């Protein structure tokens, strides 16, 4: 295997910066079954995996214009699983030819007292939601097809309502910085899902 | 992890830190303890940067980020009298990202390094506490592996501690406090180390020229 390309971001503290490569799309509820069927055929052979997660987004406001965002996610159907803390950086404004959205990401598994700890650090919860759906894998690619539910009463995950009549589809890879061939592989896989779903690079800034 | 007691061993009269550590380890070896590698526990201090204080209207808090070689893939983050978070080592990467909000007090990195001894069900770690180049004290950690409830084995631990610490045997650690029947965990050990490091930081510099 040839040496990986020189990383674009410096190695800090002895660790290599990991980047998340992302493509997103959506399907209406009634098209879900055909998409799941095709994914089951294309992806790695494994027991169909579903998930029910509760995600809370925390902000730390400082003197800087933009607050620091951290996402805390816990599994509601797999007791004993660690909580997942995630930091996502700003999308990299690389060349337009890059097929996927690329941003720095740091994933940390933590103990259950994560929310108390974040509050102690000064973070405040901005919003929360429940995500329910299916998970597929193909090599290092992760495909999630899930529905977002709004939580009606803060803190109460029992009373939720669906945000829309569709499912969000995300194709993502977490890899070391500089591995641009990853986005080519992702684009090729996304081609195979057309016309059921169109996965594309969606810049979050353009939506706001 | 079993119930653990972390305490400080004062430096012997007229001796250096290193000599006192040697006295202790020799006593342990005579007891019949077996040397089993080394250990390291370190602690970095972070305080909330001035820029975030204004919006919260509260005094800056100190956050300690610690590592323990007994759990090489974990990172412990704690506040004094606050929650202790156990995370994986990517937490250190996150602290680098949070540089603007949490400043590390570089000079206050403190660590203890030494040898691990196994004596039947007891795991004893005697370490030299250092801040930068200077040795500031001695830490002694004793773990009784088979038991995880503090109230069930404190008297046994105390007896063992007395057998080699003699008059320097500590009292029951504060973490046992009101939770005698709760299951003991690694976070409790890290809280004990944090308290020990804070105590040593406040003490006057040990009047010897440090370890060579």
Automatic annotation (TrEMBL), chain A:
InterPro entries attached to this UniProt entry: Mediator_Med18
Q: Can you tell me which residues the record assigns to a coiled coil?
A: none
Q: Where does the record place it? A: Nucleus
User: What keywords appear on the UniProt entry?
Assistant: Activator, Nucleus, Transcription, Transcription regulation
Its main localization is: nucleus
Claim: Transcription is one of the keywords in the record? yes
Going by the entry's taxonomy, the superkingdom of the source organism is recorded as Eukaryota
**Subunit organization:** Component of the Mediator complex, which is composed of MED1, MED4, MED6, MED7, MED8, MED9, MED10, MED11, MED12, MED13, MED13L, MED14, MED15, MED16, MED17, MED18, MED19, MED20, MED21, MED22, MED23, MED24, MED25, MED26, MED27, MED29, MED30, MED31, CCNC, CDK8 and CDC2L6/CDK11. The MED12, MED13, CCNC and CDK8 subunits form a distinct module termed the CDK8 module. Mediator containing the CDK8 module is less active than Mediator lacking this module in supporting transcriptional activation.
Question: Which family is this sequence assigned to?
Answer: Belongs to the Mediator complex subunit 18 family.
| Task of the protein | Component of the Mediator complex, a coactivator involved in the regulated transcription of nearly all RNA polymerase II-dependent genes. Mediator functions as a bridge to convey information from gene-specific regulatory proteins to the basal RNA polymerase II transcription machinery. Mediator is recruited to promoters by direct interactions with regulatory proteins and serves as a scaffold for the assembly of a functional preinitiation complex with RNA polymerase II and the general transcription factors.
What protein name is recorded for this chain?
Answer: Mediator of RNA polymerase II transcription subunit 18
Organism of origin is Ceratotherium simum simum
Q: Which gene encodes it?
A: LOC101407764
UniProtKB/TrEMBL annotation, chain B:
Question: Which Pfam families does the annotation name?
Answer: Med20
Q: Which UniProt keywords apply?
A: Activator, Nucleus, Transcription, Transcription regulation
What's the protein name? Mediator of RNA polymerase II transcription subunit 20
Entry keyword NAD: no
- Organism (species): Ceratotherium simum simum (Southern white rhinoceros)
Q: What does the similarity note say?
A: Belongs to the Mediator complex subunit 20 family.
User: Where does the protein end up?
Assistant: Nucleus
Complexes and interactors: Component of the Mediator complex, which is composed of MED1, MED4, MED6, MED7, MED8, MED9, MED10, MED11, MED12, MED13, MED13L, MED14, MED15, MED16, MED17, MED18, MED19, MED20, MED21, MED22, MED23, MED24, MED25, MED26, MED27, MED29, MED30, MED31, CCNC, CDK8 and CDC2L6/CDK11. The MED12, MED13, CCNC and CDK8 subunits form a distinct module termed the CDK8 module. Mediator containing the CDK8 module is less active than Mediator lacking this module in supporting transcriptional activation.
* Known role: Component of the Mediator complex, a coactivator involved in the regulated transcription of nearly all RNA polymerase II-dependent genes. Mediator functions as a bridge to convey information from gene-specific regulatory proteins to the basal RNA polymerase II transcription machinery. Mediator is recruited to promoters by direct interactions with regulatory proteins and serves as a scaffold for the assembly of a functional preinitiation complex with RNA polymerase II and the general transcription factors.
Q: Which gene encodes it?
A: LOC101392670
């Amino acid at each position: 295997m040839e040496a990986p390309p020189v990383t674009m971001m410096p190695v800090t503290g002895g660790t290599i910066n990991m980047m998340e490569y992302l493509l997103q799309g959506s399907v209406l509820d009634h098209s879900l079954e055909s998409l799941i069927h095709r994914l089951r055929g294309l992806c790695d052979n494994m027991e169909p995996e579903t998930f029910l997660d509760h995600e809370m987004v925390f902000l730390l406001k400082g003197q800087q214009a933009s607050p620091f965002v951290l996402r805390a996610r816990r599994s509601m159907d797999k007791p004993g699983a660690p909580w997942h803390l995630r930091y996502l950086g700003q999308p990299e404004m690389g060349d337009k030819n890059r097929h996927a959205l690329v941003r720095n990401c740091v994933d940390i598994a933590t103990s259950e007292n994560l929310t108390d700890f974040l509050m102690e650090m000064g973070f405040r919860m901005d919003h929360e939601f429940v995500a329910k759906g299916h998970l597929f894998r193909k090599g290092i690619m992760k495909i999630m097809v899930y529905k977002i539910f709004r939580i009606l009463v803060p803190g109460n995950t029992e009373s939720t309502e669906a945000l829309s009549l569709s499912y969000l589809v995300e194709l993502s890879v977490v890899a070391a910085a500089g591995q641009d061939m990853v986005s080519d592989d992702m684009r090729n896989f996304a081609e195979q899902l057309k016309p059921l779903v169109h996965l594309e690079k969606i810049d979050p800034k353009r939506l706001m | 992890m079993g119930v653990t007691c972390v305490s400080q061993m004062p430096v012997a009269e007229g001796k250096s830190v290193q000599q006192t550590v040697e006295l202790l380890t020799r006593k342990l070896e005579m007891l019949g303890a077996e040397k089993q590698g080394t250990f390291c526990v370190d602690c970095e201090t972070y305080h909330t940067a001035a820029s975030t204080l204004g919006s919260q209207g509260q005094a800056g808090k100190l956050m300690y980020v610690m590592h323990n070689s007994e759990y090489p893939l974990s990172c412990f983050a704690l506040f004094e009298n606050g929650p202790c978070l156990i995370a994986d080592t990517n937490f250190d990467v996150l602290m680098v990202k949070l540089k603007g909000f949490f400043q590390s007090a570089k000079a206050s990195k403190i660590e203890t390094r030494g040898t691990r001894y196994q004596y039947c069900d007891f795991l004893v770690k005697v370490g030299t506490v250092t801040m930068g180049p200077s040795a500031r004290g001695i830490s002694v950690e004793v773990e009784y592996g088979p038991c995880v409830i503090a109230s069930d084995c404190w008297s046994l631990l105390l007896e063992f501690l007395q057998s080699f610490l003699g008059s320097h045997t500590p009292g029951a650690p504060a973490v046992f406090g009101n939770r005698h029947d709760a299951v003991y965990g690694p976070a409790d050990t890290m809280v004990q180390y944090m308290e020990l490091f804070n105590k040593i930081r406040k003490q006057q510099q040990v009047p010897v020229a440090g370890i060579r």
